[in-house]
Amino acid sequence: MASDHALNPTSQSLTQDPVAAEPIDPSSAKREILHNLLQEAASFNLSNTSSLLYHAYTSLPHSSPSHHVNWAGFYTLDPTSPHTSPSLILGPFQGRTACQTIAFNRGVCGTAAAKKRTVRVHDVHEFPGHIACDERSRSEIVVPILRHWKVVAIIDIDCAEVGGFDEVDEEYLGRLSNLLSKSCDWAS
Amino acid sequence: MASDHALNPTSQSLTQDPVAAEPIDPSSAKREILHNLLQEAASFNLSNTSSLLYHAYTSLPHSSPSHHVNWAGFYTLDPTSPHTSPSLILGPFQGRTACQTIAFNRGVCGTAAAKKRTVRVHDVHEFPGHIACDERSRSEIVVPILRHWKVVAIIDIDCAEVGGFDEVDEEYLGRLSNLLSKSCDWAS
After folding, report:
1. Is the dihedral of CA A66, A71, A76, A82 positive or negative?
2. Stretch among A66-70, B14-18, B169-173 having the lowest mean pLDDT
3. How many domains is chain A built from?
């Protein structure tokens, strides 16, 4: 993971410049925290990684909308669902109880799974077909995990504030997705 | 689950007696909350049940030591571990990151799994071989889930106060264990 440092120069100044007196840039703080998360997640399963994610986000400065993450976890491909009508089943997470199964194409999670791409929603109330598992959730990001071009799971994170996620989350959660695709045992 | 009501007369008075003015008995509050949890858990998988458990305990009155639960979840039998040397693997939970694998006989979890019985620890510092995943944990209860007399998983709950669990927890978590033994799909 040494290459992460080259991609993440801002995090160096946060920890190495003793004379830096200005307030912490929330975006830089997020990069540093998500960078550290990637290091730790390399040896963790989905259960531990859901805890890492939740506590990473909620440890962000209060000035960051992402601080208000209220749900973080995974859905995995339901191996009993028909190939022609696949669905996701609730996996490890941190937060309040959630929908236990979600069909591909349904809501934000199902859309990301069906389209095999990250879906970032600024305001869930404006997303057609949004599934309201927790009414406190106001924004959401869902990143599919692919193995051999097949969706095996999704990363799902909800935030209690509108606009909780940006391109930094897309970048780091995309890298987490790639990592988990390789480090976890997925049913073939 | 109708028979639960017969076993739980104290919960009736909490909700049905409008003239009850004395403070809520923590033990009665716990019975009512765990009774409701059993109803909901009947249709939930382990991921949702870990959330039910955590939020049930932390919703108890502050006067109950169990209010200070800081970790609630499951370990499941690691199907790749040798039959002669079985181990548990971290499953869904709520709380800080935890030990990812635990050998049978090791710590509170491994002892409960090896002995196939509930282990309730008043003060983890006095339990020989206790595994300190989270240093805030001061007491713990572990209840094995058996399927055909074989341990398939354990329920593990930690509390940040000494003496967080009593015979009420043993009773209701034992019933949860029986429920999950039947309601979940366990690898044979």
Report:
1. negative
2. B14-18
3. 1
